[in-house]
Amino acid sequence: MKRKVKIWVGVVLPVIVLGVVVWNILFSTTQIAFVNHQVITLGQIAKSNDNDRIKLSILDVEELDEIGKYDAVLINGMGLRITAEQRAMIQDAADNGVCVITTMATNPANEIISADSLTVAAIKGYLNGGGRRNYRNMLTYIRRNIDGKTIDTEEPDAPVKREQKQFYHIDPSAPEDEEVDFGSVTEYEAFLKKHNLLKANVPRIIITGQMGEPEELVAALERSGNVVYPVRNMQSLIQSHQVDSIRPAAVINMAHGRMGDYIVNYLTRQNIPLFAPLNINRLVDEWEADKMGMNGGFMSQSIVMPEIDGAIRPYALFGHRLDEDGLQQAFAIPERLETFVQTVNNHIALQSKPNSEKRVAIYYYKGPGQNALTAAGMEVTPSLFNLLVRMKNEGYRIENLPASADELNKLIQGQGAVFNAYASGAKADFLKNGNPELISAEEYNKWTAKAVRPAMMADVVALDGEFPGSYISTENGELALPRVDLGNVVLLPQLAAGAGDDDFAIVHGTDAAPPHAYIASYLWAQYGFEADVMIHFGTHGSLEFTPKKQVALSNNDWADILVGAMPHLYIYSIGDVGEGVIAKRRSYATLQSHLTPPFMESNVRGIYKDLCTAIQQYNDLLYADSKPNTDNAALKVKRLTVELGIHRELRLDSLLNVPYTEQEIARIETFAEELANEKVTGELYTMGEPYSAERIRSSVYAMSTDPIAYSMLALDKIRGKATADLEKHKSLFTRNYLNPARELVTRLHSGSMQITDAVICSTAGITMGELNKAREVERSLNAPQDMMARMRTMQTSGQSMGHSKGESKKSGHPSWIPKAGKRPKETRVAEENKPAEMPAKVKAMMGITEYSKEEKELARVIIELERTIRNVGNYKRALENSPEAELASLLNAMNGGYTAPSSGGDPIASPNTIPTGRNLYAVNAEATPSEVAWERGKELAENTIKMYRERHNDSIPRKVSYTLWSGEFVETEGATIAQILYMLGVEPIRDVFGRVTDIRLIPSEQLGRPRIDVVVQTSGQLRDIAASRLFLISRAVEMAAASKNDKYENFVAQSVVDAERTLIERGISPKEAREVSTYRVFGGVNGNYGTGITDMVQSGDRWENSSEIADIYLQNMGAFYGSEKAWEQVQQFALEAALTNTDAVIQPRQSNTWGALSLDHVYEFMGGMNLAVRNVTGKEPDAYMSDYRNRNNMRMQELKEAIGIESRTTIFNPTYIKEKMKGEATAAAGFAEIVQNSYGWNVMKPEAIDDELWNEIYDVYVQDKFDLGVRSFFEQQNPAALQEMTAVMMETARKGMWEASAEQLAAIAKLHTELVEEYKPSCSGAVCNNSELREFIASKSTPEMARQYQQSIQNIREASLSNDKSMVLKREELNEADKVTTIISNTVVAVLAIVAIVALIAVVRRRRKKMEE
């Protein structure tokens, strides 16, 4: 029996084994993996797969260690980004028998192929042909000819080029089939008519693009009453004039890249809005949980590039879900589909709805109390008034419009005010007299049930309590919403987006929800007021800066909820494009750009005339042939320098018997020339009102003179004509280049010169051949971007990208299939550590010629000169026409029209930002730093090292801190990123399209210095638009730290060791400390956009020592943003450890519209970092500004020097003050902001602000030293601003940061208390909510004024007990200092009461005892 069993086993087992082997050889499943292919394409391939023995999988680049288990791997090489290790995995699989076929490789290093050429041609043919028939045959081909499974499959057909006609649509009678194609409008409309989809007199919508699954979108648009035309090639549709018979009301582009200038021109001419909904390109649950939303190259192609076409509403619409086989498929997310379709319909409805019926909600921004309406660079109330007048003239139903801007301002201050939490008295008065919109709990709950998920409302309740929350309410529980009712137009203040507690520290892990009042305001606009259009008036508000996703928002993001389906327009300054793109992407705004204030000469040369003359006399002696003694001349320069106080800004000595050196006098000369040539802004811009003729002239000079002068200098340097003296003596540059350039601009501006090529050549001193060569180089450098756009267009339209399609001419075994295919003998790619070289064939196809660095620079200079000369007249016309263009564009957008796109930025640095009235866009982050930015960044990094060496006995900084801001990043194309990389000794690697996809170490010998460590703080705006660049910096740090055998010292490696030691000393585990020791990129916790310290800084009674502020800064800015996996990770002490060894802090400045004193964010970020470094290291770091304002002369500047130049040319310059005094309330508020920021700098970096600066503020604004009528200006335009200025001055003295005299303090206190008495307390930052300051001011006042002053403050802070019964009475809400005082007082009273009671009991007992005796 046993023997029989053995025999059977011996027979059966081999049969089974043989069967398994045969099965595997002949019948087993063919495993096919796809790498980097779009899910939409894979969905079509999956639908075509009718063979259950073919298994399709998506292989992520992070899973390439599993590549060996597949029979075939198809890789889409376009935009593929893989590491050297990942590339090696693919190569090993290819070498070990896996069939790997890479198509469309944009990086030649990724073009890994292990199949023979005929097989590759077949696969490319199938993929290029597209359609289910080709895909089905491709899968069969892979199973038969690659995997060798021939028994259960038939011979596949040859690839066929599918004839994809212009229009397509799913057949309603066969919805599972492939879409039906149509070649003409007539043919397509006949199909629509047959299926009852063609309607008369309804909007017609074109859908194009490839990055969505259009079937559900088409159906939803059709159900909502539209006729929809899905098209494959928008450009050919226009060129063939087929579009003329459609007359679309809107175009929807499921975008992946640009449509191109041709389409932009068409949309502009026809005034058709362009929508670009997003495909989140992953599973919906993953996306909703992701804090980023989208980043990197996919964000670039889905959001950034379409913005350049003027696309609006980057709304996440398409996502992925898993099919029954586990493959991802694209689909329209149902709840988002409904909102998107409603959004499109709402925009289209504006095209036909009469203006008299349109309802418009306009949001403005203002501070609490009597603060003026504010917006960057704009006089807000007159601008708003001009818009309202224009709207009324255009037929909008605007009722009870005040007769003037002043009257409108009074109405807003009365009915549209904002209140601090403590201002109970003011709030009670508003509730009685302010005519608020009362919102019941029932209404609010109905709205939130429609718009807000329950979990999010739970967050609101946890923060703000049950409705109505902490804002103004009636005793019936109704929320009192401030608003100005003008009929069909309503004006609303943007309320505080936070609950307003006194705890400045941000707790990690809490995505702060806005309070009920904030939510109610926007939901009332949507559902209560039923606005047709929402407008945010002026740069900037808070809606776009609510926390959570950076882009591709979901239903869990507040901005997405609060905007809803309302068309949203945002009036934004061209000078603030970095923040503007956040408004576009996070609040779906169509930006409407407006002018900055005009620019003018500082006009201070006369003030420094004697000094300049003395410097010239010194220079004449210095270069005289007889070499006379220069000491007396140098002493004269020194005496004048000290008299003017310039020695303080330049950190020079003031010993009048020791002459300055030649180098020191050269610095003084540069300083004086910069003062004279500084560009300052004039009167704030009022929308709809042109600059004066004089300000147009001065602005054109500012835009044109420097580019011409510096281009001429650059040409002379290239020719060897510029002497070394020019570099040393700024006055020589003014005389030889700046003045002649100014004379040329004068002639051009007057129109007396005809501009020809001959004029260009004569001015530049070049030949016609050199001019043509420069133009040729310029075209060649732009070729990669042009080619990329063409490739995207071809890809979108389904055109062939050049792959062989193969043809079948005979029956039997197809000739195009190799009978015995062979792998190429060598499948290895080039060395991974070398940058990918663009093949000569590709370069030729793209029209690229190689040029040397010198040729490129010469071409750049010539083109810059030509562009400026040709555009002087255009600049003049653009400035003249912009005010009308802005209003016309805004009204056109309110009519559902298209807003043409435009780059943004300071018009001096970026003149192509004018004319205004356009929709701003940013740069492609993936292409940064650009080649020009890289060269400039290297120069600035070397300049930083040189300046530091001069101040520190030739020592090199070990670590430098950089601030990254979005505005600078956009306008310089990543120059600060370039500085950071070069400091580390790392350089970018570019792909064939010029994108920076990788980095490599610069050899130590080539670098010629130690590698210098960095630490980076990023604003939330930069983080949102350029996350991939932050990842690049982190990789650069790790790469530099790991560099071995450097010739020079490696401060990066040393700093990593020091950071690790610090972390371990702080109690972090060694393993975690090692990982965190390389963290260098930090920003706001919980996705916040700022540091959260400005309110604390300005609240001087909430802190005693600046180290308390440093601690809050370290906590609030301690989130790590250097890795996608560890995004927003907070590790205790990580930022503190990263700051060890920091020797310098650097802040970018790219705009002429602001400076270190006029913009609070500078002291917030740069000052915050400076304070934190001082707190961590115990020493004061150097502080430098990266001055990018002149694109032809970028340079580094010490902070104190920058503040000196800014203060001398602005707030202490009578010309500037007089110009600003032509403005109104917002202009007055600007002076107060500068004083507040000076105080902020005093806290953050005391050495930057000295007593002399405060003394000058006192002389100019309290004593009116220039007799300009300063007080009357403030009293007439904005008394609150002068109240704030005087309060801040008193607080600076109280905190011991300014040694003011008794007379100064008495004069300031007198002015402040008089203003409070006459105009009521403004309750701006320092006026009402600082008890210690109030006591200090009272102590410096007369007893009577002190009593009146304190009573005035009390009236604002406390509600009267005699108020109407409909009000909720609240006691004064105390700040922390008041609470402490109250607690102490109450404690004392309680103790005394207890003592009294005990004493009384003792007395009673004693008496009783005596009576008993």
Quick structural overview:
The protein has 1413 residues and is an alpha/beta fold. Helix content is 50%, strand content 11%.
Structural notes for this entry:
This protein has 1413 residues and is an alpha/beta fold. It is 50% helix and 11% strand. The strands form ten sheets. The protein has an eight-stranded mixed sheet, sandwiched between helices. A six-stranded mixed sheet has the order 17-18-14-19-20-21, sandwiched between helices. Helix 28 crosses helix 32, helix 50 (1279-1294) runs antiparallel to helix 51 (1302-1319) and helix 51 crosses helix 53. The longest helix has 42 residues, at 853-894.
Give the terminus-to-terminus CA distance. 122 Å
Level of helix content? 40-55%
Low-pLDDT stretches are 794-837, 1360-1401, 1407-1413
Describe the biggest sheet? Answer: 8 strands, mixed
Number of strands: 35
Strand content: 5-15%
CA-based gyration radius? 35 Å
Describe the global form.
Answer: globular
